[in-house]
Amino acid sequence: MRPRKAAFWMILAATLGLVACGSISRPSADLVELSAAPAPTPLDAFRFIATDDVGSKAFLESWRGQRNAQADEGVTVLAVSGGGANGAFGAGLLVGWTEAGTRPVFDIVTGVSTGALMAPFAYLGPDWDQQLTAAYTDPDAARLTEGQWGLLRRPSLYSDRSLRALVGKYVDSPLLRAIAVEHRAGRRLLVATTNLDAQEEVIWDMGAIALAGQAPGQAPAALALFRNVMVASASIPGVFPPVMMDPGGHDELAEMHVDGGVTTPFVLAPATMSFWEPKGALAPADLYVIINGEIDARRTITKGATLPILMRSFDTMSKADLRAHLLASVAFAERNGATLRYAAIPTELGADSLAFDTQSMGRLFEAGRAAGMAGTAFREVIPEDLSDAAGPP
After folding, report:
1. Are strands 188-195 and 108-112 parallel, antiparallel or unpaired?
2. Which residues, including other chains, have CB under 8 Å from residue 352's CB and lie 6 or more apart?
3. Which of 156, 164, 233, 282 would be a feasible disulfide site paired with 116, CB 3.0-4.6 Å?
4. CA–CA dist 118, 230 (Å, integer)
5. Other CB atoms within 10 A of residue 163 CB
6. Residue 95 in contact with residue 303, Cβ under 8 Å?
7. How far apart are CA 57 and CA 54, in angstroms?
8. Which residues are CB-contacts of 82 (< 8 A; sequence separation ≥ 6)?
9. Does 211 have pLDDT greater than 70?
10. Cα separation of 356 and 140, whole Å?
């Protein structure tokens, strides 16, 4: 049996988890004093909270200073969404875009979930298309959801062993060195995770992590943190275990991080700056969003049983959230005179976010590649079109 939506796995995990004993040992909330404003930690040098106005502005002003010094103007952005195995479509799109000869150099690339795994290669550009292709057509990806369920032994259906092995295979020291070079040149690479303890969307400056790793003796720690953030962003709750982030040598206060898609489908601007109107060096010009999933409604007859109803409800809710996020993004683009284009998986492809088998991912990769080569992958966001796309549930 292969379920068609990640929601199925989360629902099933939550249901079985009521009687399961697999868990992560953590202190009781009654025994730990938690403050609304936690103390600064060493990790804060590489991240900020999406809803924290001060942290968001500090990151942006630092970037503005570098862009001003280099006389850079007009920001080109690529935001890559989550979508599990459907990330093969986005990977193929990028490769096809390169082959078409029209792929821009992005000033900033952001990634969520599978988009976080793709983002470093998208950021480094066409010279890394071979590694991107290998990562999303790798037979090892099929092992991500292999093996017996482990809810009685851990807080998830599957171990993260295969996910960590896949990330470790493609995220290495040469990759971080290349990212550090681009970071120094004024470009930015961001990845989102969700801190479940704080119920916050956390934005990680991956270029800053890579740059820190170039200091003498810091390479192992930087590589470990970089990989941890990528694994955390891709850890679908209930499917893969959360990643515990130690903020400063206190294991008992380690933060629980999961899939960035829990708090946002994609990242174009920090949530606290939805009405921001950047000028000068940070003024947006061209905004691209790769949605590794469907956005259009798919009409069907919903079976009258608990799981199909829940699955259909989650799918409908996710698409509505995605459309709302796109509408907010297009409003941001219109206020700032920018153009926003998005690509999504056509419903006729029958995408399955947990179909990690080589055949399914290869089919999506080639579909994305063909659309990228033909120049048909992206379309401009028109609010009326998104409203029409909702259709009947």
Report:
1. parallel
2. 2, 4, 5, 85, 86, 360
3. 233
4. 10
5. 23
6. no
7. 5
8. 112, 113, 114, 115, 234, 259, 260, 261, 265, 266, 292, 293
9. yes
10. 9
Dihedral of alpha carbons 346, 349, 350, 352, sign:
negative
Question: What's the rounded Cα separation, in Å, for the pair 304 and 306?
Answer: 7
> How remote is the C-alpha of 113 from its chain's centroid?
3
CA 318 to chain centre: 15
Residue 377 binned pLDDT confidence (cut-offs 50, 70, 90): very high
Across all residues in the chain, what is the average pLDDT?
86
Q: Do β-strands 47-49 and 75-80 pair in parallel, antiparallel, or remain unpaired?
A: unpaired
Name residue 160's amino acid. Answer: D
Burial of 214 (0-12, 13-18, 19+ CB in 10 A): middle
Residue the block writes with tokens 């942006």: 60
Residue 325, pLDDT above cutoff 70: yes
CB atoms within 10 A of CB 320: 13
Tokens of 224: 């470990």
Tokens found for residue 99:
């082959």
Instruction: Work out whether strand 75-80 and strand 284-290 pair parallel, antiparallel, or are unpaired.
Output: parallel
How does residue 25 score in pLDDT terms, banded at 50, 70 and 90?
Answer: confident
**Helix, strand, or coil (residue 249):** coil
DSSP H or E run through 144: none
- How does residue 352 score in pLDDT terms, banded at 50, 70 and 90? confident
Q: Which two tokens stand for residue 221?
A: 């720690």
Interatomic CA distance for residues 300 and 283, integer angstroms: 43
pLDDT of residue 132: 97
Provide long-range contacts, Cβ within 8 A and 24+ apart, for 296-302.
Answer: 296/344, 296/346, 296/347, 296/389, 296/391, 297/389, 297/390, 297/391, 297/392, 297/393, 298/347, 299/391, 299/392
Amino acid identity, position 145: T
- Integer Cα distance of 235 and 138 in angstroms: 19
The number of angstroms, rounded, from the C-alpha of 211 to the middle of its chain's C-alpha atoms is 21
In the block, tokens 């068609």 appear at 4
Q: In 3-state terms, what secondary structure has residue 271?
A: helix
Give percent of the chain above pLDDT 90: 55
Query: Are 378 and 343 a contacting pair, CB within 8 Å?
Result: yes
DSSP label at residue 354 = T
Q: Is 217 helix (H, G, I), strand (E, B) or coil?
A: coil
